[in-house]
Specification:
heterodimer, A: mainly alpha, 4-stranded mixed sheet, 25 helices, B: alpha+beta, 6-stranded antiparallel sheet
Chain lengths: ~450, ~220
């Protein structure tokens, strides 16, 4: 009798553990960053057009004025400006993963509204994005690669087994699974609708779509239209990839095939049809399909090979940096060699500068001030930078913008820097920090005083 | 420590969530599938549930893919003088083809969307009209056409302000022209060079002159 009880207890424990085990944490965090970047891109690339596209006197105003959402709540340009910039700020906070759930919620409200107001400019990518963002409101998307992650890990180590945490894990798992089911429904129905159509079943659909200017890049149109073989194969492949997608997910190995074929399919759509954000959104959703243990395996695999990769990839970027057009973007940055903080930051910049576009020069070196004809008093106050193809000097925060532009990893900072200069805060904050910095003249300084650039 | 009551909740909660998920996606499935007797019967429930959070449709290019080009042309009137017809759709699409990572990428979709607003209606109304052979209202009297017209004039005015920033354009006139795709059986006609020529285009709707609307330039 006792034995049976024990068995029951075990089964119950097993059931609970199955649902409360935290899964898909890495994928959810990666998806958060990916979605955030896509949304930020929407705000940033249309920044100059924001009024005519979404504002109170926009082209689609006759419809927007009927809608009630956070962007249209108040019919005023000032209000719209405010919300638009709040939207950008929230998206940035979403990307860096600060205050996970609250920012997720704000980001969802704002993204939902701007997509709803995009009307004709919107596409299936926006549609799935706003739905997945809703499901992910219940997920933990900041466990990794975020400002919250440290706190989360600390909490987890001593609070893992509380009831509240287990409930949260259950919700998280259901949120991710719902996102995956939603993705499967997308591919399945889209594929089935295609199979129903005459032009899709007779293998000519792509031929017709390519004749529509809006959805075909002339370069690919010419290549594909003149090749019956390609037209038929691509038409059928697009149906097969979509319909098979949900079924391939049931097996681990075939799952990789599904993910790979869908990613290639979307890259093809992005390039040939120009549906950039649509394709990127669907590729980012694929991050959710990979489990944490699979990510760890991948990480181990790549870190084993990382030495080889690093040299190859770095060499590739360095070579790319030698291309004339890119090379002409080089800048010289004059930093303070007597300030450990500056040296530290410049070392980091140097590490991230894969294109080799930022040349770091210590202005405490007398030759430097003479060669470039610069005044040391000015250099001491603010960091200066000089474009290699012009004589225009940038200083302070503008130097940072110049540096960030040249380093891919710092690109997310650019909108923040621009906004900070635009509201007039950027340079002031820079001056404040610069003034407070420690200066240790040479002689009193250890090896740390030299950047990698100097020693190389 | 987790109490017995909490344990019971931890067992029931996933079961409830499973049922909710199942219910949710059954409704979503009916929402995205082609119209059938069941989804027709329960349409008010399905629509009520899916709108606005889960509205979705996944058949932009299916079952029948979009296969014709429809573009907007505009004439402007300055000091009583009329201009020629100019194409205000294709330049934006070309801009997108030159650089996908530009504002053109989304702006170039406005034109076809506005045209669709004019002429396309929801499936059920269309099917109903087809069956009964009775057209309820003239197209100009339909609400969606009126809105579409206003949007097209706003689009054209915005385009005019971008193209001719220093011109005192008073009036604009708009027409929609269209070119059907060349059937696969006649694909030999499809030569690279004449693809964008206007000779096969037909005018499908022409509006009267309207005053230009005050709006900021499109680019």
């Amino acid at each position: 009798m006792e034995c049976k009880e024990l068995l029951k207890e075990r089964k119950l424990e097993g059931f609970i553990n199955y649902f409360t085990k935290e899964r898909f944490l890495i994928g959810a965090s990666l998806a958060r960053i990916g979605f955030g970047l896509i949304i930020l891109f929407l705000y940033a690339i249309n920044y100059s057009q924001r009024h005519v596209l979404w504002g109170p006197n926009s082209i689609t105003q006759p419809i927007l004025s009927l809608k009630v959402n956070i962007f249209t709540l108040v019919d005023s340009v000032f209000y719209f400006e405010f919300i638009y910039h709040v939207g950008m700020l929230v998206t940035i906070l979403f990307i860096v993963g600060w205050k996970g759930r609250i920012i997720s919620l704000l980001n969802w409200i704002l993204t939902f509204a701007i997509i709803e107001n995009s009307l004709y400019m919107s596409d299936g990518g926006d549609n799935i994005l706003r739905i997945i963002l809703f499901y992910l409101l219940f997920a933990n998307c900041t466990a990794y690669f975020s400002l919250d992650s440290e706190k989360y890990k600390e909490k987890r180590s001593h609070k893992q087994n509380t009831f509240f945490n287990k409930m949260k894990s259950i919700l998280h798992n259901f949120a991710v699974i719902s996102s995956i089911i939603q993705l499967c429904i997308l591919y399945l129905t889209s594929g089935l609708y295609q199979a129903m159509g005459e032009m899709w079943s007779n293998g000519t659909a792509i031929y017709y779509i390519l004749q529509v200017d809006e959805f075909s890049h002339p370069f690919f149109r010419d290549i594909i239209l003149n090749n019956t073989f390609l037209i038929v194969i691509l038409t059928y492949l697009s149906i097969i990839i979509k319909i098979s997608f949900p079924f391939l997910l049931f097996n681990k190995k075939s799952k990789y095939l599904a993910v790979l074929s869908v990613v290639i399919f979307h890259l093809g759509i992005a390039i040939s049809m120009g549906l950039i954000s649509f394709s990127l959104t669907l590729i980012v959703i694929e991050f959710l399909l990979i489990t944490d243990s699979e990510y760890r395996k991948l990480h181990v695999f790549f870190s084993k090979k990382s030495g080889w990769f690093k040299t190859k990839i770095l060499a590739f970027f360095k070579n790319l940096g030698e291309v004339k057009l890119i090379k002409s973007q080089r800048i010289i940055v004059f930093y303070d060699g007597w300030c450990p903080f500056c040296i530290n930051s410049m070392n980091k910049v140097n590490k991230l500068d894969v294109f080799n576009l930022v040349k770091l020069v210590n202005f405490r070196n007398d030759e430097v001030t003479n060669k470039y004809d610069l005044k040391i008093e000015k250099l001491e106050k603010r960091i200066h930078s000089l474009k290699s193809n012009s004589s225009k000097l940038n200083e302070g925060i503008y130097s940072f913008i110049q540096i960030s532009k040249r380093i891919i990893f710092l690109w997310p900072l650019i909108p923040i820097l621009y906004i900070s200069t635009w509201i007039g805060l950027g340079q002031k904050v820079y001056d404040y920090v610069a003034e407070k910095r420690n200066i240790i003249p040479t002689g009193k300084c250890d090896d740390q005083c030299f950047t990698n650039n100097d020693t190389n | 420590m987790i109490t017995l009551n909490q344990k019971i909740i931890l067992v029931i909660f996933p079961i409830i969530l499973s049922l909710v998920t199942l219910f949710h996606f059954v409704i979503i499935l009916f929402h995205v599938m082609p119209l059938n007797p069941l989804s027709n019967k329960f349409s008010h429930i399905i629509d009520g549930y899916t709108y606005p959070l889960f509205v979705q449709n996944w058949h932009l290019f299916a079952p029948e893919p979009i296969s014709s080009n429809r573009i907007i042309q505009m004439k402007t009137q300055t000091n009583g003088k009329n201009s020629e017809w100019i194409d205000i759709t294709t330049p934006l699409i070309d801009g997108n083809h030159k650089n996908y990572f530009s504002p053109y990428n989304r702006i170039s979709r406005l034109s076809s969307g506005a045209i669709q607003q004019l002429f396309e209606e929801d499936e059920i109304t269309l099917k109903y009209e087809e069956k009964t052979k009775k057209i309820e209202k003239k197209i100009e009297e339909k609400e969606q056409f009126k809105i579409g017209k206003e949007i097209i004039f706003r689009y054209a005015s915005s385009y005019a302000n971008f193209q001719y920033p220093n011109n005192d354009i008073e009036m604009v006139k708009i027409r929609i022209i269209r070119k059907d795709s060349i059937p696969f059986s006649e694909r030999s006609k499809l030569r690279k060079n004449n693809f964008n020529k206007f000779k096969d285009w037909e005018s499908i709707y022409e509006f009267n002159w309207e005053p230009k609307i005050e709006i900021s330039p499109i680019l």
